[in-house]
C-alpha cells in the first residue's frame, strides 16, 4: 500500500510539472476564457487567446473560438492549457511560439491548418498589468468597425487617452528600437540611459513605432499645427516617452473625424 501511495505522489508531481507557467495577466485571461467555455458560449474545441497589444498600463487580447490551435495567419501558440474538452491556446507578443510538432502534441490537433481557423465567436478583453480585468467586448454586437481604433469602448485603455479632451490622441501599442551599440547593456543601464546618455551625448532610442489614432470629439473643424499643445504617452514611469506630432503636421480634422 505504501509503495502504491508513493507511486501516486510521483505520478501527480510528474503530471503537474507539465502544466505551463502563466503570469498574473495570463491568469486573468485564462479565467475569462474558462468562464466563456463553462457558460456554453464557446462550442469549438480550441480557444485562441491572442495578445494584440501591450501598452504602459494594459494588455489587450482577442478571445477567439476556433477550429484549430493556431491563428489565421499561422501564428502558433507559446503555451496550451487544457480545460475540460477544450484547449486554451496563448499566442503572446513576447513569447516564442511552439513548433508545429509541439503544438500538435499539446493539443491533439489532427486537422488542416490551411482550411481550418476562426470558426466561432470572438471577444476583446482588456487586462491591466496587475492582472485586473477591465472590460470584455463581444465583437458580434459591434457594427461598422474595421480596426480596433473604431471601437470607442477600447479608447480609455490606449496610451495617451485623456477623458474629455477635444482632440483625442491614442496609441494602441508601441515598440522602442534600441541602438545597436546598446544591445549588450544590462537592464539597469537601459533604464538609466534610455532617453539620454549625458556622458556620450546620445540617445539609446533608434526608433519608436506603433499604431495610433487622432479623433476630433467636437462638432467643429480642428487644425493641428506646430503650435498645437504636445501630446505624450507614458511608457515606463521615470522613462516616460514624450511624443509630439511633427512630420505629419499640419493635420486638419473635420467634425467628429478620426484618422489612423
Name the assembly state: single chain
The helix content is 10-25%
Give helix and strand order, one letter per element, not per position: HHEEEEHEEEHEEEE
Task: Tell the overall outline.
Answer: globular
C-alpha end-to-end distance: 68 Å
- Label the structural class: alpha+beta
Low-confidence stretches: 1-17, 182-193, 234-238
Largest sheet: 6 strands, mixed
> If helices are DSSP runs of H or I spanning 4 or more residues, what is the number of helices?
4
- Mean of all residue-level pLDDT scores: 76
> Beta-strand level of the residues, as a percent range?
25-35%
Notes on the structure:
This protein is of the alpha+beta class and 260 residues long. Helices cover 18% and strands 30% of the residues. It has four helices and eleven strands; from the N terminus they run ααββββαβββαββββ. It has helices at 2-17, 24-38, 100-107, 187-193, and strands at 46-54, 58-66, 79-83, 86-91, 119-128, 133-138, 167-178, 205-216, 222-224, 251-253, 258-259. The chain has a six-stranded mixed sheet with strand order 3-4-1-2-5-6, sandwiched between helices. Strand 3 and strand 4 (86-91) form a beta hairpin. The N and C termini lie far apart (68 Å). The model is unreliable at 1-17, 182-193 and 234-238 (pLDDT under 50).
Amino acid at each position: 500500500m505504501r509503495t502504491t501511495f508513493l507511486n501516486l505522489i510521483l505520478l501527480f508531481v510528474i503530471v503537474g510539472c507539465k502544466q505551463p507557467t502563466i503570469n498574473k495577466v495570463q491568469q486573468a485571461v485564462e479565467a475569462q476564457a474558462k468562464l466563456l467555455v463553462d457558460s456554453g458560449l464557446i462550442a469549438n474545441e480550441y480557444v485562441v487567446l491572442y495578445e494584440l497589444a501591450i501598452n504602459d498600463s494594459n494588455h489587450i487580447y482577442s478571445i477567439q473560438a476556433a477550429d484549430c490551435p493556431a491563428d489565421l495567419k499561422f501564428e502558433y501558440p507559446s503555451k496550451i492549457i487544457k480545460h475540460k474538452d477544450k484547449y486554451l491556446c496563448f499566442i503572446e507578443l513576447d513569447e516564442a511560439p511552439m513548433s508545429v510538432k509541439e503544438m500538435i502534441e499539446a493539443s491533439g490537433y489532427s486537422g488542416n491548418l490551411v482550411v481550418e481557423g476562426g470558426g466561432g465567436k470572438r471577444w476583446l478583453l482588456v487586462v491591466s498589468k496587475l492582472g485586473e480585468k477591465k472590460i470584455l467586448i463581444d465583437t458580434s454586437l459591434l457594427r461598422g468597425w474595421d480596426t480596433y481604433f473604431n471601437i470607442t469602448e477600447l479608447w480609455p485603455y490606449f496610451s495617451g487617452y485623456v477623458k474629455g479632451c477635444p482632440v483625442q490622441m491614442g496609441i494602441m501599442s508601441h515598440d522602442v528600437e534600441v541602438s545597436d551599440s546598446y544591445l549588450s547593456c544590462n537592464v539597469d543601464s537601459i533604464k538609466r540611459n534610455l532617453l539620454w546618455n549625458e556622458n556620450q551625448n546620445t540617445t539609446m532610442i533608434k526608433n519608436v513605432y506603433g499604431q495610433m489614432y487622432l479623433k476630433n470629439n467636437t462638432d467643429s473643424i480642428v487644425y493641428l499645427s506646430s503650435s498645437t499643445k504636445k501630446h505624450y504617452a507614458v511608457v515606463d514611469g521615470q522613462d516616460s516617452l514624450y511624443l509630439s506630432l511633427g512630420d505629419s503636421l499640419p493635420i486638419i480634422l473635420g467634425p467628429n473625424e478620426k484618422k489612423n
